[in-house]
Structures
1.
Amino acid sequence: MAYYTIEDPTCEASKMQRAANRLQLQAYLKQYAKMGNTECLNKHAGRVGVEMGISQHRAEQWLLFMHYLHTWLPDFKEHVISKAHLEYQHFQKLTAVLRTIEPLLPEHESIYTVMAKVDAFLVKITTARFEHQALPRPEHLRRQLSDYLIRLNITGSDERDETCTTSAEAFPTHTPGLSGFTWIGPSDQILRLDQSICNLVNRERISRSEAMHRICNENAQTSITLVGFAKTSHDPTPTHIVGAGELAKDQQANLTKLHKHYHSITKTAQQLRDSYVPTAAQCAVVRLRDGTCRYPGCDRDALKCQMDHVINHGAGGWTSAGNLQSLCTEHHNTKTDRRIRTTMNEYGVSTWYFPDGRIAISMPTGILAGIRGNPKAVSTRWGKHTQADDNIKPPINNGIGRWGYTVNHKLKRLTKHLKRKPSFEGAEDIPF
């Protein structure tokens, strides 16, 4: 039977968490039922906040989600109450996308038809496919729903649309002498700016803030490479970009002016290489397949991740899509430290084995999820491997390893946060 780790019937902690989730859902559904159609949401949220001991903003977020469940999402409502596997952060992220549907809905589309499709889609993406499958992170659900709406042609990417809200503004921070800056705009434009900043940081060895200043005020020049997915080599216009997600039609049109180089996905996925460093095409396929860091529960974008050999290259692991996965620096270090062990099949489904015997299945979530790699990639270059090859000895430092840390270590790091030097992106991958 397929289930998420939080639905494991043998885990007492999972049972307690699900019971708490179900009680919360039922409590806020009752609070929503008390609110009449003409009652002020702000006023009711304030009263709920006082009664429940939470902020008015949090109460309003709960009530908005209850509105969508009760009004538009009957199947999803029944699903989340019976499963009780999702919690506030999941609902908050979903609400942020759901509230954009009506103002962005094309004139010829029916809100009833669209919401019925969304209802079925939400049930699908929150239903486990394997035993011990890791629960999707809130940000992952947000991305999936957002990409789905783009495929339904519900998008705010066109700045000519009066319903689209774009903004750029500075704001103060808690640190004296420092301010922040936010820019909300079309995802492809934001991605290109971010990539340009990263390239300038790596090239000039400067901070991100200095790089952004040079680009905006000194016309600093840099070149970037975007990794995308196109359906055919005859018209290689990307419909999906790593780091930006699904592209609306106007965004696709903007990219037609850029130089493009096409690689066959199926051929690249089948490649077996002896050398350690994967090709740019192999990295692209793996990132498009994975979507995010493959550690259970991590939603770091694959674009910001390193390439990891599941079977260590030194232990005979192939450099092939079937033996490569995207891992953020923290979780790459965790695997390298041997604090956790993982295996992967040719479809990119990763199984993680924790020291206490627990298991978690991590599914690829990118646009190429389900693509098959070379079956030989799950074995070694010499056909077999030993425990010594896999390097499964316990981590050093009493199980903490080189990169693990205790509570005291964490607190010491936090005290040094303001004194740290700017970090530079694009460091070489760990050789495992």
2.
Amino acid sequence: MSSGSWGCRRAEMLRLLLLLLPPLLHLGPAAGQLVYQVREELPRGAVVGKVGEDLALEPRRLASREARLTSGSGKQYFSLDPAHGLLVVKERIDREALCESSASCFLSLELLVEQPVQVHSVEVEVLDINDNAPRFPRQEYRLEISESVVPGSRFPIESAQDPDVGSNSVQNYQLTPSEHFGLDLQDLKPGSKLLELVLLQPLDREQSTHQQLMLVALDGGNPAKSATAQISVRVLDINDNCPEFDRSIYMVTLLENIDPGMLVVKLKAFDPDESSNGDLLYSFSTYTPQKVRQLFTVHAVSGEVRVNGSLDYEEDTSYEIYVQAMDKGSVPMTGHCKVLVNIVDANDNAPEIVLTSLYSPVSEDAQLGTVVAVLSVTDLDSGINRQGRAQELTLML
């Protein structure tokens, strides 16, 4: 067996003996406990504590008494410099890897000294440094909020995580200025916060369909480290707008001999709501007389008004068509307009001659100027198609 193996074997035997028979051993001066603090991430060789000085042992005595460190953990983070009586860093220490987010983090060691045998407990507290920036679980949070939601409503947002502890953990949040949204932060327990987006003012989808916000998380380090995340708010529509025609009255002039199927006018209504709340159907309103419904049609989708029957100026010189646009919301809303159609006369009627009076028989010796008959001439057309009003004519010799 090599001398090195024997030394390790002897140390283990001494350790076991100390555990099994502590009352029977005389340890010389009373064994003590040493407590040190060290910041994480220190380089190798960084001094943790002056072991020799704290135990009142000169460095040469530590060497002669074969002072050495033992640890219950698998990895040795510290070593003893017996020549100078110092406890130094042997391996890089990552506090977050050792203790995660625990408020305290200790590494336990034992300093074993022989001649006489003494065991000193060594506790090293690993102090946190601000070596980690906060992180949000995701880069973007997407929310869908109805425009009917009342101010004061709250929407939880996943908080940022920071493996550092104490003041080096997340301490504050900031939101880009917004007239509609604010932040509320509540402490649930140490190291845990409830983050909520709060609606400050009512949303109006017709004014803004989306809201883009920037959320910033800040830790308490100096300088502070930060993380950012986007909050994308999609405003959901409710049926809160009535359809509106681009004009309230449409005025159209048609010849009375226009063919059935010809376009009269194309109506256009607009509803700022979206989806079915903004889809429109056109139809006659309840105010449209049945006669007008027989002479004209309204296309439900296009809003086209067309001639459906024969128009006759001599019967009606104008028509009033009342049209509505109705959306497809669960509680439909409607808008209304009026189409005023003026009919222009066409020369579609021949004059009529009516014999109103006849003097018969006529004597052969009747003088010139004697009335033979009275005729009446009428024309149902108007204007130049009529050339004046109905006249009464006298037929004379």
3.
Amino acid sequence: MDDHNGGSDTNILVAVDAENDYIYGVSIPRDTKAVINGKNHKINFAYNSGGTALLAETISQQLGIPVDFTVTVDLDGFAALVNAIGGVDFEVPISMNYDDPYQDLHIHFSAGMQHLSGAEALKVVRFRHNNDGSGYGSEDIGRMQTQQNFLKAVAQQTLTLSNVDKVGEFAKIFQQYVDTDLSLGNLAWLGKEAISMGVDKISFSTLPNEWRSPYIYLDPDATLELVNQYLNPYVEDRTMEDLDIPS
């Protein structure tokens, strides 16, 4: 997701395994250390420096696997997509009270089930902490978990057998609000695959990591295990030599 400031606010790598019937999304923390144009940066700088192509290349280099397609949605597009499907019922995980007058951003929600419009959903998934500093405890990690749960809620409400005839319509809505190299046919196929698999076959996690200011460092061994279990498209397992994780 484009953050309107030139960087990528949210990075999720998704693997669709039609043979084994699962869809797996892994969040990549925006502060993950990466080598971009020969210098150390946070990984979200790749989008700032070279758009989706450089971001995909950076992720591919770190994880040792190809990134075949890219999808970019800006903040306005995210809100429009949620509105296009009629809003989303979502369990807001914690009470949220945050105000940023400089961005004209005001986030105020009580914990519990809410029906969120596009603008409201955008506020929920952007939230990091309250005005008094309280919140998730681990700002970006907690926010990524909320984003993952929100995407799962969207899937539960759209990828149902009753909507199988609407897959083409959903694909057109998606294509209207995002920048992607996926064709309309690709999107329709993905939608039908997801419906046939069932929502319980869609799961998310976050790349294993630890925070050491100013970066988040990926755990090489745990990352390699995750790559081979869920993301590796090759017959042979990836090895540590295939990954390029900065230390």
4.
Amino acid sequence: MRSGSEFVDFLIIDESELVSFQPLAGSFVILRCRVKFLVCFSIKNKKWELPGGRRKLGESPKECAIRELFEETGQFVPELEFAGLLKKRKKRTGKIKYSPIFFASAKDLMPFNVNKETSEIRLWNLTENIGAVNKTDFRLLTCLEKLLLDGKWTWNEG
């Protein structure tokens, strides 16, 4: 599912503007810990990915992000902040979708248990060779890193 999409852009918008962007796809989480990013190894896709996935019926984008982060990585972070929208294109059809992106910082990671979706989690600095990484997720992380360096986006450490 995720490997069939490609990064188009990261849109810095207010969370209240989400209704203007359709179709709204699943939510994803960027969790930074000790100046590295949390990634999880997808059993299905056999690559490292950001935690996230599809919304359940009646679930808000933030509720989805909190649930997916916990289900895939064992990390419970209810105070996620909205970062913006990942604009992505389906490679096969060219259709554009928007995924809400949430972020948080943590001093330490909570214990992880292997589950049906994820075999391992780790903290990654974007340069270390960890094997196959979801290309869209990598492009998103490098885009956000550049926005941070350029002063166009801020990361609340608090």
